[in-house]
Design a protein that fits this description.
Blueprint: H1 7-13, H2 24-28, E1 36-40, H3 44-55, E2 59-63, E3 79-82, H4 90-110, E4 115-116, E5 120-125, H5 136-146, E6 152-155, H6 157-163, E7 172-178, E8 182-185, H7 186-199, E9 203-205, E10 209-215, E11 218-224, E12 229-230, E13 234-237, H8 243-246, H9 248-252, E14 256-265, E15 281-285, E16 289-293, E17 301-305, H10 323-336, E18 345-355, E19 362-366, E20 369-376, H11 386-397, H12 410-415
Parallel strand pairs: 1-2, 1-13, 2-9, 5-15, 13-20
Antiparallel strand pairs: 3-8, 4-8, 5-7, 6-7, 10-11, 11-12, 14-17, 14-18, 15-16, 16-17, 19-20
Helix pairs in contact: 3-7, 3-11, 4-11
Bound molecules: flavin-adenine dinucleotide (FAD).
Residues 40-46, 63-66, 70, 73-75, 77, 80-81, 208-209, 238-242, 246, 260, 262, 304, 351-353, 376, 378, 380-384 line the site of flavin-adenine dinucleotide.
Amino acid sequence: MGFHSSKRQFLKTGLFGLIGLGTAGRVLARNKAKPHVLVAGAGAFGGWAALYLLRQGARVTLVDPWGPGNPLSSSGGQTRNLTGAYGTPEVYREWAQRSMRLWLEHQERWQLPLYEPIGALWMARENLTLGDTATDRTADYTRWMDEDVEGAEKLTPDEANSRFPQISMDGIRTTLYEKEAGILFARRACYAVIDGFLAEGGDYRQAGVVSTRTKDGEMQGVTLSDGSKIEADRYVFACGPWLGKLFPEVVGKHLVVTRQEIYYLQTPDGDDRFHKSKLPHWVDWGREIWWGVPAHQTWGFAVADHGLGPHFDPASGDRRVSDSGKQAARAQVGARFPGMKGAAYLTGRVCQYTNTPDGDYIIDRHPEAENAWIYGGGSGTGFHAGPARGQDMAGYVLGRGMPDPRFSLSRFQESA
Ligand SMILES: Cc1cc2nc3c(=O)[nH]c(=O)nc-3n(C[C@H](O)[C@H](O)[C@H](O)COP(=O)(O)OP(=O)(O)OC[C@H]3O[C@@H](n4cnc5c(N)ncnc54)[C@H](O)[C@@H]3O)c2cc1C
C-alpha cells in the first residue's frame, strides 16, 4: 500500500500511531506562496529540521526510504543521552541547553515521555590524560571534566561512592555528576516528531532520494526510489550515514561511518540498584571509554564502548553483535558494578557513528547548488541537540542567519 492510498488511514491514526491527527484539511492545505523545501532523511537531523521549517513558514516534503527511527538508522536506538558534556565549545553548550527545554516542551505538548533527567556520572580514570583518547572532541570533554561547570558537581571518588555504592571507584581519579542530564527515548522521539510534523501540515513520503539534478548553481530536482520526481525550491539532505553515498564527491571522502555495538545485560532479580530510579547514566573514562544506561522499562542494563569500530555500510553491513564484544562488555560491567558480575547477556544492537575528521557536524550548502544543504556528520553525539539545531537549521535554509563556520565543508579543504 503506497503512501497516497493509505493517507486517509494516516490522517485518522497518525502515521506512527502515537498522536491522532487533526483535520485532513490541515495536512492537505497548501499555500503556493510558501517556499517548498524537500528534506531527505527523517532521523534526529532531518525530522526536527522538517518540523521547524514548517513552523517557520515553509511547505515541507519529508522523504525517507525506511521511515523515522528505523533499525538501520543512527537515531533508531532505544535511548540517547543528553548531557552538558556536549557543551564545548559554546555553540554545542547552547544547543544542549536549549534542546533540553525543547524536549521538555514537546513532551508536554505531545503528552509522551521523551526525556527523563536521571542524571549522569562521569568517572575519569587515573590513567586518563588529555588528548590521548579517540578524537579531538574527546579531549574537549576531558578538559570539561576539570572545569567548574554550571549544573555539574565535582565529587571525589569517595563522595561518589557514598552516593552510588553500587559503583566501584577502583582506579577513578575524579568524577562529575550532572543532576539535570538524562536519557531521551530515541526511537519513540523520532516517531513523535514525524507525527507532530504530519499534524502540523507536513507531507511525508516513504521513499529515498536516488538522484539529484543540479544546473547553473542550483538544485533543480530529485528522483525518488518510487520513480517520482520532486522539484522543490530548497533541499536539505539529512541522510546520516548514507550522505557519503548520495554525495561521494562532496562529503564521501570526509565522512567515516563506523560500526558501533551496544549490549543489554540482565540485572539481578529483585535488585533495583541498577535501575534508572537508583543509578544515573554513567561514563567510565580511561584509555577506553565505556558508557551505559541503567535498566528501564523491560530493557536491560545497556553498555557500549565509545571507541570507533571498523568501517561500516549502513545498508548492507552485518548487524550481528560480536562474541568478543559481549564478553568485553560483561567484564567491564562486572568490574565497575560488582553486583552485576556474571550478568547474562540479553540482547544487542549494531548502530553506526557518522564521523567527520574533527567531530564537528556538517551544516553547509552544497558547493554546486546554492539552494541545497548538507546536514549531518553526527559523530556519535548528534541526537540530543536535534530540536535546537533543527530550529536554527530551518532559519538558515529560509535565509535567516548562517551557521558557525566550524560546520562548513570548506574546513576540510583547509585542513587537507
Ligand atoms: C550506539 C550509539 C550511541 C549514541 N549515543 C548518543 C548519545 O548518547 N547522545 C547523542 O546526542 N547522540 C548519540 N549518538 C549519535 C546519534 O544517534 C546520531 O548522531 C544521530 O542519531 C544521527 O542522526 P541523523 O539524522 O544524522 O542520521 P539517521 O538517524 O541515520 O537518519 C538518517 C535517515 O536518512 C534516511 N535515508 C538514508 N538514505 C536516504 C535517501 N537516499 N533519501 C532519503 N532518506 C534517506 C535513513 O533511512 C535515516 O532514517 C549515538 C549513536 C550510536 C550509534
